Amino acid sequence: MSALVIVESPTKARRIQELLGDGFTVLSSRGHVRDLPDSASQLPKDVVDPEVRRTLGVDAANHFKAVYVVTDQSKVRPLRAALKSADELLLATDEDREGEAIAWHLVEVLRPAVPVRRMVFHEITPEAIEQALSATREIDDNLVNAQEARRILDRLVGFDVSKVLWRVLAGARSAGRVQSVAVRLVVERERERMAFRAATWWGIDAALGHDGASFEARLVELDGTALADGAAFDERGQVKDGAAVRVLDEPTAAQVLAGLGPSRLRVAAVTSTPRTERPRPPFITSSLQMEGSRKLGWSPDRTMRVAQDLYEAGWVTYMRTDSTTLSAEATEAARSAAGTLYGDEYVPEAPRTYDRRVRNAQEAHEAIRPAGSSFRGIEEAAGALPADGARLYELIWKRTVASQMVDARLLGQQVRLEGELAAPAGPLASHAVALRATGQRVVFPGFRRAYVEGADDPDQELADQERLLPELAEGDAVDVETVTASSHETKPPPRYTEATLVRRLEELGIGRPSTYASVVKVIKDRDYVWRKGTALVPSFTAFAVTNLLEQYFGELVDYGFTAAMEDDLDAIANGEKDLDAWLHPFYFGDDEGETELARLGLRRATGGEIDLDLPSIYTIPLGTDGDGEDVVVRVGRWGAALQRGEERRPLPPDVEPDTLTVERAVELLAEGTGDRELGTDPATGLEVVARQGRYGPYVQLGSPEEVDGKPKTASLFQAMTVATVTLEEALALLALPRVLGTDAAGHEVTAQNGRYGPYLKAGRETRSLADEDSIFTVTLDDALALFAQPKVRGRRAAATPLRELGDDPATGRAVSLRKGRYGPYVTDGETNASLRTGDDPDTLTMDRAAELLQDRRDRGPATRPRTRKAATKKAATKKAATKRAAATKKATKANATNKRATKRAGAAVAAGPTEPASGPSAEDPDDQR
């Protein structure tokens, strides 16, 4: 007997092949082998229904039947070949909805004539694989239906709504059932920050001494009235209703400072409160991503990539789960490790169990833990794994072991100190004051010896640390050593980080373990959000998209509605609901009413368009200026711009919305568009202007009205800016290309600046110049000498590194920060990755560089133009026969193109100033040259 075993990834296949040995052939499907088509051209020719072609493979009228296409035949061919010599087929894809769907698609594509068994496991160890072989099952149709329902639903929602976005918002890339909710969460938080008004108060801190020991205390009462702190104010900067507090201002703080210095205080009360702290449960997908962000500074996507590698190498259990359960053998392994390392007193008498409290928990796996019945140690992992793998394994190991350790015992301490202000306090002399000192002592560390969960708030993390107070008793005298007064401001609600966004989605019951990382990655890649440090900042395009969805597709971004859909999809997975019966009313409506998606379909079927209030979508109000005029941000084709009446100014893409107050907006509008008049061209009498354009800074000669068409433009050199370029430099740029003379063949030799830098040209021959200044200094002899040398093929010489960052943990190669044609980028010598919006070259870390490089590798090489294959001799006759017809067609097309170009030129004149045609191409700017 020989068996063919199919898994998803090559790494997983190699590991399982080692464990199974002879008699088994383990191959990889490399993910899904079938999916809904990406374009109508991929659909089979017999699919002629226009609605099926419009939705790219979903036959909604025929019980939502999906038309699948094989995504890559090269994935299927080796599987078919191996199946011919196999006696049975074992499908060992992951034990979740996606894995079950992959298994079903494999059966549909391969059509095996041999017995088929489903083999599932949640860790890749000899014991787990042996157990999986002895307990195979059939493919679970309910799980397949649930995955198919999600895929169809996402296609219908995303495709229909995205088309509306594309029609009205040029910068919008897509909408989606989960991604749009995630974008709305980030936008709503930014709206809260924009509406927030800070409140200011003063605080007094004192360093106190007693019997040679020093400790800190804070002033909390003045004349029996509590002093306000940050918790006393609302989001409008006002004291909360009913709060009986006094706001300490600067003059009063100065008087208290003067009077408290020479005072002596006495201890009025000492309070000690014992408490216990329980360990956190073992990791699930979302908590692993959160801790990866907090403790390692990783994105959820990077955390999941490393976890996937650890799982496939047999180091940890399956990483997509929302179960906190540990098997009996894993529990025993964790207890044994804790006892061996820390002692029996750190191990509870009975094993700990954890209940899931996250809404819609449904996955059947264990928690994420070290694989096997005994855990390999951290030191072994450090010697056997790449750096990233070892760091994440250590995190998982410590969390798992800590989850089976005893509670930590803590003692909270609070001391109240009272006194009176001395004479220097002036009008406040003899006024009563009260201070409070707080401390915390770890009586027994318990699980803290192994692991302490990180915090999103640095202040909270600091508060959890041990702070010791001296031994104090009621009535003790305490000296005031130093006193300081400081101003404080209330803080707006914190922006979401990738970790806290995942946690919020989980709390709302939106998305699943397998989708969290991809959702965060999608909204970043589509420029709906960008990172500032670890915080997620929404773009103004995200505001406009959210405006549209809230006004016209409110159900699709409603948190309760989206979570209810997740409940229904879970019911389909459990066999409690039928896929067709559930999708039909959602897409077509029912007797109880129409959904927004059904209303959109009805309008489409009757040839109508959705009636949109475009200004309310494009416009983000900021407020009114001193004259009562509205100041807004308008999102348009070329990005966001400030507007007040007829005044308009483009905004750079990295403007943080919450920093754009009315006052700041008025200042920016007063600065104008950023255009700078340099002077007059002596030869033409036209004005020369330096401008900041879509593709970078440039200079322009005259206006469209003056030259009756498109003005001449030239991009600035890299060392030039709009603020510093001179008239002489601008005229030199506008005079390019510079003619040097002619070569022996009579070709004109020129020096000019192009997309990829400065170069020489003679006929069809080109040669690169060393730098931009050489354009104005190179001589004809220099140029002819360069043309006499063989042309260097391939990429240009790499830019000089701005900074060396260290070694990439994934490849071991040295990583450097460089400046390229399209801006700063990082490289390890093989892969280049541009910095994203919000990445500061001066503060870029090695971890962030590694994340950018890995993301670039995952996306594959930049798209290259297709090269035409040489015509075969057999085809030459046919080509000759059609040559005249093709030439005629080409001429007709050229005429049409010329007409369109003329029309566009007229539109450009009407639109006003233009920008240089040269700029980034459609190719990926990550592919730095």
Give a brief outline of the structure.
The protein is α+β, with helices and mostly antiparallel strands and 929 residues long. A hairpin with a 5-residue loop joins strand 4 (58-59) and strand 5.
Helix content: 25-40%
Structural shape: globular
The number of distinct helices, counting runs of at least 4 residues, comes to: 28
Distance between the termini: 55 Å
Largest sheet: 6 strands, antiparallel, barrel
- Radius of gyration, rounded? 34 Å
- Derived from helix and strand composition plus strand pairing, the structural class reads alpha+beta
Task: Write down how many β-strands occur, each being a DSSP E stretch of 2 or more residues.
Answer: 34
Question: Which residues form runs of ≥5 with pLDDT under 50?
Answer: 358-363, 602-608, 864-885, 887-929
Percentage beta strand: 15-25%
Strand order of the largest sheet: 9-10-15-14-13-16
What integer is the average pLDDT? 82
Explain what you see:
It contains 28 helices and 34 strands. With 929 residues, it is α+β, with helices and mostly antiparallel strands. The strands form 9 sheets. It has a 6-stranded antiparallel beta barrel. A 4-stranded parallel sheet has the order 2-1-7-8, with helices on both faces. Strand 23 (676-680) and strand 24 (687-693) form a beta hairpin. Helix 10 (300-312) packs across helix 16. Mean pLDDT is 82; it is low at 358-363, 602-608, 864-885 and 887-929.
Distinctive features:
929 residues; alpha+beta; 6-stranded antiparallel barrel; 4-stranded parallel β-sheet; 34 strands; 36% helix; 22% strand; disordered C terminus
